[in-house]
């Protein structure tokens, strides 16, 4: 079983500190939800962990199975088992989904090893069936002209194909209508296993009706200010975030 440890992480963009002492440990098999208002640093946290060059980790550490990933390039982090599903996925005109995913899988093989095309397509189609994605999609360019919901499904398809040890999902629910949300949730639930840990960033409680988290954390001003079980998400939905802040002020 693998373990992702985020230890007293501080992240700055330029001169501005955005993440201010974030601590969290995720074990394989666990789903943790991070909730919090816009601008609290949720996306900054996930991009910094993925290794985005604009997000500078000024102190703290991120350990994957006890080993710091901070000196690793983004592609090494991916090969070590980390996956980031973006809040705003990029469009890659001219590269089909089929070729893109194949290249992503090929990149994880040892030099000289080749993906077996028949096995690859069999796997791709079974994952697409799981996520109820039309097969016509494979010949379309990655995210090019996709709706918000289609982009999110494409992110989940990538995750299903790559089978990471840890997935950071940044507002995968945004832009999805309720049917698409259920399909994505079913897909993630189907992927849940002791070898996958999930950090699910969400602004709304709705996703958590379908993907039931082991723990819910409230992020405010760059750090976790409250943690609880799935009921915390319901409480937040009913009372808003100010309630947590007031509680904190009186503690
Ligand atoms: P969240 O995902 O919780 O809504 P973000 O991590 O996107 O929050 O943003 C946190 C803060 O960092 C905001 O004040 C935002 O304006 C700022 N920020 C995020 N990305 C950038 C960037 N690339 N350049 C400058 N400021 C940024
Ligand atoms: Mg965000």
Give me the secondary-structure topology:
Blueprint: E1 3-13, E2 16-27, E3 31-35, H1 42-50, E4 56-64, E5 67-68, H2 74-79, E6 82-85, E7 92-96, H3 97-106, H4 117-130, E8 141-142, H5 148-162, E9 166-170, H6 178-191, E10 197-202, E11 215-220, E12 223-228, H7 230-239, H8 242-250
Parallel strand pairs: 3-10, 3-11, 6-9, 9-10
Antiparallel strand pairs: 1-2, 1-4, 4-5, 7-8, 11-12
Helix pairs in contact: 3-5, 5-6
The structure holds adenosine-5'-diphosphate and magnesium ion.
Magnesium ion (MG) binds next to helix 1.
Quick take:
It contains eight helices and twelve strands.
Query: How many discrete domains?
Result: 1
Ends distance? 36 Å
- State Rg: 18 Å
CATH class division: Alpha Beta
Bound ligands, named by name, code or SMILES: adenosine-5'-diphosphate, magnesium ion
Number of strands: 12
In percent, how much strand structure appears in the residues? Answer: 25-35%
CATH architectural label: 3-Layer(aba) Sandwich
Would you give the CATH topology? Rossmann fold
Outline, from the CA principal axes?
A: globular
Please name the fourth-level CATH homologous superfamily. P-loop containing nucleotide triphosphate hydrolases
Category by helix and strand content:
alpha/beta
What sequence of helices (H) and strands (E) makes up the elements?
A: EEEHEEHEEHHEHEHEEEHH
Strand order of the largest sheet: 6-9-10-3-11-12
The major beta sheet can be summarized as: 6 strands, mixed
Low-confidence stretches: none
Mean pLDDT: 91
Report the total helices: 8
Residues in helices, as a percent range: 25-40%
């Amino acid at each position: 079983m693998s373990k992702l440890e985020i230890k007293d992480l501080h992240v700055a963009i330029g001169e501005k500190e955005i993440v201010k002492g974030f601590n969290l440990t995720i074990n394989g098999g666990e789903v943790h939800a991070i909730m919090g208002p816009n601008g609290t640093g949720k996306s900054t946290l996930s991009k910094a962990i993925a290794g985005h060059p604009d997000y500078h980790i000024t102190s703290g550490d991120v350990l994957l199975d006890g080993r710091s990933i901070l000196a690793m390039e983004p592609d090494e982090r991916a090969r070590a088992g980390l996956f980031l599903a973006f809040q705003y996925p990029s469009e890659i005109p001219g590269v089909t989904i089929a070729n893109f995913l194949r290249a992503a899988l090929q990149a994880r093989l040892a030099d000289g090893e080749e993906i077996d095309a028949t096995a690859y397509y069999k796997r791709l189609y079974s994952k697409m069936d799981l996520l109820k994605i039309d097969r016509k999609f494979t010949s379309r360019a990655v995210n090019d002209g996709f709706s918000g919901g289609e982009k999110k499904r494409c992110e989940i398809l990538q995750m299903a194909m790559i089978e990471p040890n840890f997935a950071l999902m940044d507002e995968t629910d945004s832009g999805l209508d309720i049917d698409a949300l259920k399909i994505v949730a079913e897909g993630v639930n189907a992927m849940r296993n002791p070898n996958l840990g999930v950090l699910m960033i969400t602004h709304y409680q709705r996703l958590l009706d379908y993907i039931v988290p082991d723990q819910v954390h409230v992020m405010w001003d760059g750090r976790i200010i409250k943690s609880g079980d799935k009921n915390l998400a319901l409480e937040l939905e009913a009372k808003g975030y100010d309630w947590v802040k007031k509680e904190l002020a009186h503690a």
